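Hello again,

I reread your note about wanting to compare the complex against the isolated chains. To keep things tidy I'm splitting this into two emails, and this first one only covers the full assembly. Below are the input lines as submitted, including protein chains and any nucleic acid or small-molecule components. They are followed by the predicted structure of everything together. The single-chain runs will come separately.
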Amino acid sequence: MMNRRIKETLIKYLFFLFALVSVIVLGLIVFSLFREGLPIFQHTPVWDFLFGMEWYPTYDPPSFGIFPLIVGSVIVTLLAAVIAVPLGLLAAIYISEIAPKAVKEILKSVIELLAGLPSVVLGFFGMVVVAPWLQDTFDLPTGLNIVNASAILAIMAIPTISSISEDALYSVPREFKEASYALGATKFETIAKVIVPAALSGISTAIMLGMARAIGETMVVLMVAGGAAAIPESLFDSVRPMPASIAAEMGETPYRSPHYHALFATGMVLFFMTLAFNLIADYVSHKFKQTGSATL
Amino acid sequence: MDSNIIIDLKNVNFYYGQTRALSNISMTFRKNKVTALIGPSGCGKSTLLRLLNRMNDLIDGTRVEGEILYEDQNIYAPDVDPVEIRRKIGMVFQKPNPFPKTIYNNISYGPKLTGVPVDDMNALVEQSLKQAVLWDEVKDILNQSAMNLSGGQQQRLCIARALAMKPDILLMDEPTSALDPISTAKIEELIEELKKDYTIIIVTHNMQQAARISDETAFFYLGNLVEYNKTEKIFTKPDVKQTEDYITGRFG
Amino acid sequence: MNGKALRSNTMRWRYFKQYVFFTLVRGSAALITLALGGLIFYIVYHGISAISWEFITQPPTHAMTKGGIMPAIIGTIYLTFGAIAVGLPLGIASAIYLTEYAKQGRIVRFLKVGINCLAGVPSVVFGLFGLGFFVIFLGFGSSILAGSLTLGFLILPTIIGASEEALKAVPQTFREASLSLGVSKWQTTYRIVLPNALPGILTGSILGIGRAAGETAPIMFTAAAYFTAKLPGSVFDEVMALPYHIYVLATAGTNIEATRPIQFGTVLVLVAVVLGIDLIAIVIRGYMRRNKRW
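Full-complex prediction:
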């Protein structure tokens, strides 16, 4: 009968190996990025790479300063968050606290479908519909700019923010709400002063993950942000966020040229920025875990 | 050693993490008897029951000290396979928990998967259902889902499922607490019937039930075995004041 | 008198604030619904005229300014099934370890952080990883194989999450009943837990599968071809794919304005495929929840 116990133990370790695959892949991602990206630093020092103002990868001699790309990524992400956070959060409050049951189910499906829309479709929409409209309405040289990209990115971030916030709001213990109502608070006061504060860690996680989604999103910024690798002066200027630069240029780059390495190194920067967002989100959600009434 | 003794606990302590749930329990269970474990909620009676077929292994962070001898073998010895133990010691749970399968497959599931050689599965299913006094009610619907049965029927099905493994001992964890009085009466009759062939250890909250069906009764309080004796003695002239207070309903 | 009037004024003010807030909240929900509805309507309105039997069954002609999108549809089907073949077994197995075998503690925490981080990796970085690792390091070249592996790992966290949720929803009493009969852990998992969790695992995973069908950046450098009229002969061939085809036509085609109808048609096909998959999952899940027996 030892036979079966050995078999059971083997099965357990086999499943452990499967579960380890995600971590291994994460490791391989880092490995691949480093292997293909690090050589650029023999060409351009790290400091000049990160903070160089000039991204002229195809000039002779080329210059690989990705600071304008980083600024582009950060600015479209921040503006997208400005749009998506209130909308996503309010929608989450509506779904979890106010909507009648039928509306709630429909709205949850709507948000799920919105999350399912392929990014290239949203990018296409931004190019074909939003850009001409912006150009005509505000009399701009181009409609492919920060505002356009941010608005489309916001659509992509809303489902993440809304669904995770909704989970957090939903898990606020009922006693809190009842206690608040029993004291004569209105529904709005209960939501604003009891429910939202109690769900704050979950909401913060939602915002971090929504922003991580926005900063890493590629097709939208590739198609809609305009592509100018310069520090923007107004919100109607074009930018070239990091993912756009990688996606646009990788296809035309000779294998293992400095430019190729520079794009992988840009991928490293992008990877570590999103990793930071994710680790912060993970930390916040564990550190301030809602575990019912006992935590307050 | 008395050949009538089937399980022998020696200085058993049990911990959930840092909390001690059972303190220094020593007791024996006798063959072909019904032993009732009684006591207020959280006294450790269910924990003790689940120790006997190593179901507590499933809970993270638990620890056992002492020895539990089943047919002179310590079931917590390192070379013992809990799976093997559970084949000999069946269990019926508080809430009926049939699998979402047909009635037939609920019964045949255990023997089939544990590789017990069965000449005639149909006969085994019939025999088990008859033992559990369910055969007449379900013989025409063996291929229907067990989920369609009533609660009382489901519980008898669970008993039949355990009997199909031909265990030596049947552990019952408040088997009637989720059932109506009529179903409860049926199960109690069944237990009377089963004790001819099986050793039964039953946890119950219901004093009358313990008094009606058991030969011996053990009273637990705060993880300690307070009193263990013939049922008749426990319910008429208990030695310990606490036992009397509990039985007469003064606490618990 | 005065006090009463004052109090009711305060109340009125409090309810006014609530009214304003509720309007905002409803407005946001309406705006989001409108955005999805408007988008879908716009795509259908402009795309429907391009759809025909030829469009779906013929390859592009005249330097992709005419003809259909059949190779892109086929390519997307291959890549999606490839991604499922990679992601689904790995995802289910990972979830089985996490819910059935692992004891809560550091190892589980470590695995979960890893899975969360993998879920957060940008799609273009997945593309770089696929290029650096599968295409170059392992020498698969730009191919269905490299693209499927990249997409499979991209959807792995989604499938793990869906599977974990479905496995946790199987009542603990089923496991106890099986184990108490002396059935081993693996057999209990395989015979009782997995069959009962499978519908939930599949519907949850479908949402990840829709994502695999719609992603562009991960396949740009790993699998997608600008144009091939012939269908792939092996997993080492490049393929066209719907999302990449849209991108190419919209940004780098030979005549961007003239091919607008084809672009809209392709967008419509992609949206129909992806949202169709998602919608089926959502409907099945709703049905399952209503008919839950345990």
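For quick reference: The longest strand of chain C covers residues 60-61.

B.
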